[in-house]
Specification:
GO terms for molecular function: beta-glucosidase activity. The structure is a single chain. This protein is α/β, with parallel strands linked by helices. It has one domain: Glycosidases (TIM Barrel, Alpha-Beta Barrel), CATH 3.20.20.80. Helices cover 39% and strands 13% of the residues. The strands form four sheets. An eight-stranded parallel barrel has the order 1-2-3-4-5-7-11-12, surrounded by four helices. Strands 6-8 form a two-stranded parallel ribbon.
Amino acid sequence: MSKYTFPAGFLWGGAIAANQTEGAYREDGKGLTTVDLIPAGPQRWPVMGGKLDAFEPQLGLMYPSHEAIGFYHRYKEDIALFAEMGFKALRVSVSWTRIFPNGNDTEPNEPGLEFYDHLFDELLKYGIQPVVTIAHFDVPVHLVQTYGSWRSRKLVGLFERYAITLFTRYKDKVKYWMTFNEINMLLHLPFVGAGLVFSEGEDKRQIQYQAAHHQLVASALAVKACHELIPDAQIGCMLAAGSTYPYVCNPEDVWDAMNKDRESFFFIDVQSRGAYPGYAKRFFKDNGITVEMEQGDEELLKHNTVDYIGFSYYASRTASTDPEVLGRMTSGNVFGSVDNPYLQKSAWGWTIDPLGFRITANQLYDRYQKPLFVVENGLGAADEPGPGGEVADDYRIDYLQRHIAAMGEAIEDGVEIIGYTSWGPIDLVSASTGEMKKRYGYIYVDKDNAGNGTLQRSRKKSFHWYKQVIASNGGNLSADGLY
């Protein structure tokens, strides 16, 4: 637990998203964004999959993003706590509708721009580098209503203008950017990933891959603009990662596992290598998918590849072609996975696989030979404060110890990793379930699933542990003697 040597200047920190923390969903000119229409409760999953009945919040439903954890008004308090832990970086996202409330406004919203000025200034005051995601599960609702979201080519130009607005405004404050959060989620939760709403009888897969092409072109245009406007910046892509294992050594299981990985790699292959891979073209042909491209798209993709690969890692996945095995699917896994008997699971059904983290990092680096940035990793758990008010989250420390150790092993393997921003350094709204009960943070937020609570912040045991990890640059992962 103490033998790992992380690179000098390694970017230790945490990661949050605007839609899961900020709240203030209609303040200071902000427009409605897609997540503002995703309720908690049984209606949540159908909406995330693209079944939406109305383009405005409905009475009687609870929408977690509307208040979230109040970060919009409490960011100084929260950043001071991150600084106390010694953060070198904080990954955040910009809410598109704070900048362009409708997405196609003629001028940006100045109060929205000012908020992120203040946020980045506060981070830099403590020497914390902002790592900014341009679109983190975020599409203006007006663009969904007007154009059908990313199914329309119109969004490419609007996203490019949005990105250029950010680069121009924050070029002296932000040196690490990412285009789309977990871009491959478009295929699994299409409303979350791309604001896609489907009508009865539509060819969903055709629409999803056309939307994917539009996002890939928009990403390339953002990379081009970033390189031109901020030459000393780095801009990356972001993948929801996790290697897929064959359940048994049956070649059909191996082939199925490879294809499930390729489903995700497709996006990063284009963003990192600059071209549609042959296996994707074969898939389109075999499935009757026609991706419409404009003249110049292929050249744009070829010449505007990303500088680094950002990825999230929570769990590995397992694939099988055996009908009996397919009946034993794990719960809580968006990607679908059969139960792996060799692995423990979290309370929400996610497999706990530190070695899988090392495997995934090696796999990505072998494939792309570009620096990696671990921008999400963490354990969602139902934390309960003890008699003294502090959460003794030894289970989280154990999870993170083992995963950071696996990351250290990957670096020893020769994998270039530039930073680690664990997910949810402060409790926030879960993107999948919409719960507050599913907590990831080193900092406890007093709020429950129903929205009750004071929003008061308090340090968990893992807060003190992670502070020690950062101070030692990963050299001391022990939890001994914390209290």
